[in-house]
What we know:
Number of strands: 6
Strand content: 5-15%
Oligomer: single chain
Helix content: 10-25%
Shape: elongated
Number of domains: 2
Amino acid sequence: xxxxxxxxNDGARxxxxxxxxxxxxxxxxxxxxxxxxxTARTGVAINGFEGGQMPIYRRMPKRGFKNIFALKxxxxxxxxxxxxxxxxxxxxxxxxxxxxxxxxxxxKSAFDGIRLLGDGELTAKVTIKVAGSTxxxxxxxxxxxxxxxxxE
Length: 152
């Protein structure tokens, strides 16, 4: 026996039912679609319709809301910032702002501003201008001799 000679046993796989090929096939006439009406036709779109009963999505109470005024910030951790400085793509001597972070590839987009988070170690002395910062991130930057400027 060779690998290219391996096949299923006879009758192991059942062939597909050919519908609408006469009443003797067992799936003739209506082709498994029942009688007449909307569901017998193509392009039927009645998801959520429960035969006139109040649908589940209307019986359930509405909950919550989406705040359309919420601001979206691009988040940067201290570890990511330090890695960019170590690689030489960010200059620690200059002020680090949103444009510098985007051009360095640390963030893809600034959205409504940059938010500095305190995950990771920062050893470089940096001046960073951001829209927001966590207390731990600000403390870590100041401990390294740097400064965090919160932009309005």
